[in-house]
Specification:
Elements lengths: L18 H25 L4 H9 L18 H14 L1 H8 L2 H8 L9 H6 L4 E4 L11 E6 L2 E11 L7 E8 L2 E8 L6 E5 L11 E11 L3 E6 H10 L2 H18 L2 H16 L5 H23 L9 H14 L4 H13 L2
Parallel strand pairs: 1-4
Antiparallel strand pairs: 2-3, 3-7, 4-5, 5-8, 6-7
Amino acid sequence: MSGAPVYRVVVESSGRNGAWLVDRAADFADRRLFAAALATDRDGTVPSTLLDEMRDLGLFGLFSPSGVGGHDLEPSDRYRIIEVLAGGCLTTTFVWLQHAGPAAATAGASGPAHAFAEPLASGRCTGGVAFAHLLRSGPPTLTVSANGDEWVLNGVAPYVTGWGWIDVVLVAARSGGEIVWLLLDAVEAASLRASRLQLAAVDSSQTAAVTFDDHIVSTDRLVRIDRYADWLVGYRAGLRANGSLALGVAGRCARLLGDGDLAHQVDSARSALDAADTDGLPAARSEASLLAMRAATMLVTSKAGRSVMGDDHAQRLAREAMFLLVQGQTSEIRQHQLAMLRSAP
């Protein structure tokens, strides 16, 4: 473990009832996540003790309404919690953040899948998601067809994070112009195979490619059906949250450097994300990800040769910043990133 000092995060909450949870998350991020981040990064898995502590702190209820045991936080408080946790350990935060998909989806479900909403809100049931493939161009990589009172899945979900830890996974599959969302048990079978990926950063997130071969899902696991075109509009409007991951990494670099100007840039990037409308979010997200990369590069440079040692946070944060350039990257975000990089002096 590097001897670098740990800097306390000062947070502000704008929500009516979220200040206590923001403060709790910030303390946990500095005291537990950051202290374990290097070990988590190299050990191949997120310690279950950390995820258990996050559950006990109430952090799994971040994405659920009070009707099922969640917190009904203001969006600004949710974003700030994601940011401070990411500044502690991006890998642990990334695994935890996958829980948002099934927690929110089942809370809004009208059928039998709604029964999962309360266990997910409490963290007694842990969830992941499989929908990144929806943003790929070309033919769908994962399709679904109806067969009586069952659904049949075929194809590949190329990125499913937390495999081996999650209990359920919210899977999105294409059926013509629609998306069918199904809540599956995250258990391998003859018709469901998971192959762990080797990642250059956040590898301990246990991200896997999951292949479905005539995998049958009962109709009581249907969460909802969306029109693909409508979902794309909603997804584009919801790009804000992932920007907090980049702010967390950039903010940690600023604290390790003791750089007030860089900390001010993080604050400005946060304000830009908060103020952006749907059309402005891709540019704001792009700037946040590039800021994380610049901040990590500054940290590596400042620490010289020491920064590339495996027990130094600089190399970890640099790899995490690289990861965040492409995580959640839409074609619009990529275009903005490239344009910003080409215009940089």
